[in-house]
Automatic annotation (TrEMBL):
Gene Ontology, cellular component aspect: cytoplasm
Entry keyword Amino-acid biosynthesis: no
A Pfam family it matches: DAO
Species assigned in the record: Asticcacaulis benevestitus DSM 16100 = ATCC BAA-896
Residues covered by the FAD dependent oxidoreductase domain: 31-380
Name recorded for this polypeptide: FAD dependent oxidoreductase domain-containing protein
InterPro entries, sorted: FAD-dep_OxRdtase, FAD/NAD-bd_sf
Length: 424
């Protein structure tokens, strides 16, 4: 999947502005090169530049124009894999370390926003709603489990309470996580970019890396415009836009597309009266929140091809009306798509690929919190502290069936099965 820059019909792009960064040209030398100017790469750049390390960030399009500037903007708690499963896989001690890491990631996000004065419309609170009554048992167990970790910010809601919070009666109950929330993701990315440049990191746009190789004096990168970079250490942080750089990444990380709309400003105080974010229990999840100017920003539906639907607004509107049938006459102002990355297990793929080469990708929809922090962890790993990256590398991320060549049909078959299950 090729990133062509900010989508023309994005409400995010329409409500944020940022300086342009130059394209890299000629032969460039740096200590650390980072491929990808989204949350992961910018988080790493801030960490490294703060230590006075010479760092260069290359983005194939515009800084923050990939998933980091297109996503639902939701702040979730925990790792992408449930803590109960992590404890079953790794035992109580390492599962607790992974939970603490996810809480550290959330704290780190809030610290970055505060320290660097990033105005990104931050709000607290997230409702998770059950589209089937059977999910009550799972969430009840989750609430009890995380209480053992001292996390008391999530509470169960009955059907009436969820209806009051969301302004719809189509769900059977849910949870409210006061430690979750939402923000403007593109403003966050642009604020992280400003913080990195203030620390003297060098950022380049429209600088697409097509290959890299080890050489005697370090690592040599070749760009599609003929420019080159020589570095000592390399971080690959392009998430859904990294195909062709590494066979190992390609076999474990798959780009998929997800879609979002915004309505015109609504005059319906019953919808999200407390300004929480919301998501439901479907495998192909619906997620939504209100914007500061009272639009409904609603994400729903995905595809697994290199192409977006011809009419994104209509594609997402069908899902929105299943949640809010009362919005049948609401006008849709914006509709856009974005490419994220998933893994087979939904756990992130974090690896030391080779000496002085690290990668992090596959946040499976939870990158707002995890990606900037995992960038910091990569930065720490290449400067001598690889404890957290080593722990993350133990997360189960099996290769897709059939490797890179056959993963598409296998993935489509598997995900289509789960999408059908949502409807049953």
């Amino acid at each position: 999947m090729k990133n062509t820059g900010h989508p023309y019909d994005s409400w995010y792009a329409a409500t944020a502005s940022a300086p342009a960064y130059p394209a890299l040209s000629g032969a460039h030398h740096t200590d650390v090169c980072i491929i990808g100017g989204g949350y992961t790469g910018l988080g790493a750049a801030i960490e490294l530049a703060g230590k006075k390390i010479d760092v260069t960030v290359l983005d194939s399009a515009q800084i923050g124009s990939g998933a980091s500037g297109r996503n639902g903007g939701q702040i979730h708690t925990g790792q992408r894999v449930d803590p109960e499963r992590l404890e079953a896989l790794f035992g109580a001690d390492q599962a607790r370390q992974l939970w603490d890491m996810s809480e550290d990631a959330k704290t780190s996000l809030y610290d970055l926003i505060r320290t660097h004065g990033i105005d990104c419309d931050l709000k607290h609170g997230l409702v998770h709603a059950w589209h089937k009554p059977a999910y009550e048992a799972d969430d009840r167990a989750y609430v009890d489990f995380v209480a053992r970790y001292g996390y008391d910010k999530v509470t169960l809601l009955d059907k009436a309470q969820v209806a009051d919070e969301l302004g719809t009666d189509v769900y059977y109950g849910g949870t409210l996580d006061r430690g979750g929330g939402h923000l403007h993701p593109l403003k966050l990315a642009q604020g992280l970019a400003r913080a990195a440049t203030d620390l003297n990191a060098r950022l380049f746009e429209n600088s697409h890396v097509i290959s890299y190789r080890k050489i005697a004096k370090g690592i040599h990168l070749h760009l599609d415009n003929g420019a080159t970079v020589t570095c000592q250490r390399l971080l690959i942080c392009g998430n859904g836009y990294m195909e062709g750089l590494s066979e190992e990444i390609d076999s474990h990380v798959m780009p998929i597309n997800n879609f979002i709309l915004t309505t015109e400003p609504l005059d319906d105080p019953a919808i999200l009266p407390n300004d929480y974010a919301a998501a439901d229990s479907r495998f192909v999840v619906n997620y939504w929140r209100k914007t500061p100017d009272n639009r409904l920003l609603f994400g729903g539906g995905e595809n697994y091809t290199p192409w977006f639907p011809k009419d994104i607004k209509a594609f997402v509107r069908n899902n929105m009306l299943k949640v809010y049938p009362q919005l049948g006459e609401a006008k849709i102002s914006h509709g856009w798509g974005g490419t994220l990355a998933i893994t087979m297990s939904r756990a992130p793929f974090v690896r030391n690929l080779a000496p002085n080469v690290y990668a992090s990708a596959g946040y499976s929809g939870q990158g707002v919190v995890l990606a900037p922090y995992f960038g910091r962890l990569l930065a720490r790993a290449i400067t001598g502290d690889d404890h957290d990256v080593s722990l993350l590398s133990r997360l189960p991320t099996p290769a897709f069936f059939g490797g890179r060549l056959l993963r598409w049909p296998a993935l489509v078959a598997g995900l289509s099965y789960y999408a059908l299950r949502d409807r049953l």
